[in-house]
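Memo to structure team: turn this sequence into structure tokens by end of day. - J.P.
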Amino acid sequence: MAKKAPASTINIGISEKDRAAIAAGLSKLLADTYTLYLTTHNFHWNVTGPMFNSLHAMFMAQYTELWNAVDPVAERIRSLGHVAPGSYAQFAKLSSLKDAPATPPKALEMVRILMQGHEGVARTARSLFPAVEKASDEPTADLLTQRITVHEQTAWMLRSLLEE
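Reply from structure team:
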């Protein structure tokens, strides 16, 4: 009879090395997502000007979507047997995105910063595919596909606001 593995052993068909690489990439995605969430919420609070109503509502919809996105990313990291980062210091170290400006910019500059942020998160998510495909990690691939779709569509919508 085969020896039963301890309950703490993870045996999901993905090696520890691959799980570690994927979790590290997902930690960067989590940090980027949380950073973009904070910037978007900041801009929601501080937007002014003739486009106030529409941008205030749009930013609320965007930060709500981002808030709902952090949990599935963190929980996937945990499912792979790793600890999800969760402090400002960790996120600052891991994120590829700049923090929100200390002084709120004008409305269209907010739009530009958020557009660039969504493009950055899409790039971070896309960069994980080689490790995910190597490990045949379909759940993470599905999560990444969903996140890339949201970020590319949001970037397009924000980019459209910048057209003259």
